[in-house]
Hints:
By secondary structure, the protein is an all-alpha fold. It has one domain (11-61). Helices cover 59% and strands 0% of the residues. It has 4 helices and no strands. It has helices at 11-17, 21-27, 30-38, 43-60. The radius of gyration is 12 Å and the shape is globular. The termini are far apart.
Amino acid sequence: MLLVGTDLVEIGRIKKSMRNPRFLRRVCGPAEYAGLAARGFPASGAAAAFCAKEAFGKAVGTGLAGFGLR
């Protein structure tokens, strides 16, 4: 069986969430965080990482609650 998940997020919403210094530490693993840091923490990059995780959660049927974000 092939499972597919998709997700959309407003980049402005992620940018607003990034005002909280803990947001990226909670949703990104160390390598993801380092990659975002190397690029100056673009909101579009953070949004892409978050969307990929939400899409995965939808594909496996658990949503974000079914696995660790980091």
